[in-house]
Amino acid sequence: MSMEEKEGSLTEAKVLAMLHHPNIVAYYDSFLDEKSLAIVMEYAPVIKIIRGEYAPVPTHYSVELRRLLERLLQKEPSMRPSVNQILAQPILLHIICNLYLTVGSLPCVAQ
User: Fold this and answer.
1) Is residue 60 domain-shared with residue 98, that is, in the same domain?
2) Tally of structural domains, the chain
3) Residues 6+ apart with CB under 8 A from 46
4) pTM above 0.70?
5) Which of 2, 7, 41, 57 is the most exposed place for a label (fewest CB within 10 A)?
6) Residues contacting residue 96 through CB under 8 Å, at least 6 positions apart
7) Could you tell me which residue ranges the Protein kinase domain spans (predicted)?
8) 10 Å Cβ neighbour count for 54?
């Protein structure tokens, strides 16, 4: 691992350590040796999702959101929607518009 790769990997580990959200896989630790960086993270059943073996989306979510999630979890990547298709979903449009309005109304501070 070159010095540049080590620095980039350590930076990634530091960023992961700062992320704390229920929808982000938790970071626990990292360690570096001469050849590689190991990042210890919370278990995530990615293989099950890749195989299409995941629990049904809970029914307390709206039908529109459940359909979108089912499309996002397609086994075949070519069957998944693109970012533009996702962002164009009616269920997300009002959230995106509110985000732009909120962010646009925040004052900018020059650094």
Assistant:
1) yes
2) 2
3) none
4) no
5) 2
6) 87
7) 1-111
8) 13
